[in-house]
């Protein structure tokens, strides 16, 4: 079960990363960035890390807030 979830997180991470440059609308690119951020944090948490994903997600949210405000 654990190996399958890590593989699933990896596939979602790669697909979300590919969704960013290949979407014609920037709004869909942002959805890809959100997917990559959430899946990356979940992937790190599945590896028994808790502080690094929290910092990664907070930095990502702060960056997106600055970009869209």
From TrEMBL:
Signal peptide interval: 1-19
Coiled coil: none
Family, as annotated: Belongs to the complex I subunit 6 family.
Keyword NAD assigned: yes
Keyword Signal applies: yes
Catalytic reaction(s) noted: a ubiquinone + NADH + 5 H(+)(in) = a ubiquinol + NAD(+) + 4 H(+)(out)
GO cellular component: a single term: mitochondrial membrane
Protein known as: NADH-ubiquinone oxidoreductase chain 6
InterPro entries reported in the protein's UniProt record: ComplexI_Subunit6
Enzyme Commission (EC) number: 7.1.1.2
Membrane topology note: Multi-pass membrane protein
Keywords on record: Electron transport, Membrane, Mitochondrion, NAD, Respiratory chain, Signal, Translocase, Transmembrane, Transmembrane helix, Transport
Subcellular location: Mitochondrion membrane
């Amino acid at each position: 079960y654990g190996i399958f979830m890590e593989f699933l997180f990896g596939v979602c991470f790669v697909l979300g990363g590919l969704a960013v440059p290949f979407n014609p609308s920037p709004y869909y690119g942002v959805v890809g960035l959100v997917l990559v951020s959430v899946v990356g944090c979940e992937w790190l948490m599945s590896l028994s890390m808790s502080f690094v994903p929290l910092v990664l997600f907070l930095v990502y949210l702060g960056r997106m807030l600055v970009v869209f405000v």
